[in-house]
Design a protein that fits this description.
The protein has about 260 residues and is of the alpha+beta class. The protein is built from eight helices and eleven strands. A hairpin with a 2-residue loop joins β4 and β5. The radius of gyration is 21 Å and the shape is globular. The structure holds adenosine-5'-diphosphate and magnesium ion.
Length: about 260
């Protein structure tokens, strides 16, 4: 047990540390939980999707993903930031789509709501095509509620950080998932890398799907080729004999129209 005096009168360094933590906490609150976002969360809570946000699993430039708890267990809640920064990183084909979707009068918030809805729609389409992705439960404004991919309350790690039990088996499972995405859902992910695949007990889950595009899009083939190169490099390091071409072929890439590359 610690000295009660120490508990009552924290040392100077502890106080500094506390204040630093508090500042960080406040920064997170300011960045994510603006008034409109709090109202959106409130509505999803009222609808019974979850009761509380437990902690951030990940916070990035474009948004954060939180673990949430509720009557039906854990959920993953993705909150997109209402700010311009999100669209700095998205490719032009996505901006084109957003402009069409929201119209010339659309403000940033409406574009982000459309973006969030798009992630929900793509997840739904992928589930229908039997691709392993988190099940989407609800989406309102900039908040998306989906299945929590994890075990014992701990989130599954991204493939980049995961330790694979059987890399060849994971390779073959992953190519099956992407093959279904391409040939049944007719979609190309657009940002598929070991960071956007979670691995739970050697089962890959594809995530972060908002920028997915139709396989008919002139850039689809090029995007899939890039993704294939990421995974070929990753799996070769783990001793799986493959190449970007082989991955591309295994996921049905040869069927894609050859784009009009600049
Ligand atoms: N359904 C989920 N279950 C558990 N963790 C998740 C889930 N979705 C996302 N995450 C975690 O949040 C991180 C960021 O999610 P992602 O959708 O890739 O958003 P970003 O746009 O920030 O890249 C992931 O790398 C993963 O660690
Ligand atoms: Mg991501």
């Amino acid at each position: 047990m610690s000295d009660p005096d120490e508990l009552l009168y924290p040392t100077r360094t502890e106080r500094v540390e506390d204040r630093r933590k508090e500042r960080q906490q406040r920064k997170l609150v300011d960045e994510f939980f603006d008034h409109a976002t709090l109202l959106a969360i409130g509505r999803l809570v009222n609808q019974g999707h979850f009761q509380s946000l437990d902690y951030p699993i990940s916070t990035g430039k474009e948004g954060g993903v939180f673990r949430a708890s509720g009557p039906n267990g854990f959920r993953a809640v993705k909150i997109y930031r209402i700010g311009n920064s999100i669209f700095r990183h998205v490719p032009p084909y996505v901006i084109e789509w957003l402009r069409r979707e929201v119209g010339a009068m659309g403000n940033t918030a409406r574009m982000i709501y459309a973006w969030t809805r798009r992630e929900h729609t793509v997840l739904t389409a992928l589930r229908a095509a039997d691709v392993r992705v988190p099940q989407p439960f609800a989406c309102f404004r900039n908040v998306l509620v989906m299945e929590f991919v994890g075990a014992d309350g701990l989130p599954a790690p991204p493939m980049q950080e995961a330790v694979l039990g059987d890399p060849s088996a994971v390779y073959s499972d992953l190519t099956t998932q992407v093959h279904r995405m391409v040939t049944s859902a007719h979609l190309v992910h657009g940002d598929l890398s070991p960071y956007n695949v979670l691995v739970l007990e050697d089962r890959p889950f594809l995530i972060d799907v908002a920028q997915a595009i139709s396989t008919e899009h002139p850039q689809a083939r090029e995007l899939l080729e890039r993704d294939a190169a990421h995974f070929a490099r990753y799996f070769r390091r783990l001793g799986v004999e493959t190449s970007a071409d082989e991955f591309f072929e295994a996921v049905g890439g040869r069927q894609l129209p050859v784009g009009v590359s600049a």
